[in-house]
Fold this sequence. Notes:
It contains two helices and five strands. With about 120 residues, it is α+β, with helices and mostly antiparallel strands.
Amino acid sequence: MTEExxxxxxxxxxxxxxxxxxQGMKILERNLRTPLGEIDLxxxxxxxxxxxxxKTRRSxxxxxxxxxxxxxxxxxxxxxxxxYLAAGNGSGLQPRFDVVAVLxxxxxxxxxxxxxxxxxDG
Length: 122
C-alpha cells in the first residue's frame, strides 16, 4: 500500500472515530489486530459492542467506499470479532457490525454511517 493510501486511510479512520464519538459512541479500540485480521474501530454504544469497518476514497471513480466491504471482508471482520469476544471482551454486550464510508474530495468530507451493515448471518 502506498504512503498516500495509508495516509488517506488514517485520515478516514480519524474522521470516522470523531463522528462516531459525536453520535454517542465510546471508542474502545483503534486498528485492533487479531490473529484473524484487523478491525478498524471497536466502540461501545448503549448495550452494543460495535465493530466498525471504515472505507475512505477520494472520488466515486472506483465505486462507493462501502461497496469495498464485500463478503470476504465481512467474513474476516466477523472472525476477528468472534476472536475478540472469545477473549472475554464485551461481555454482556450485543455485537453489531457497522460500515462508515468517508469521501474526501479536496476540503470537502462526506460521511455515511451504515449501522448494522452486516451481521453474524452474513
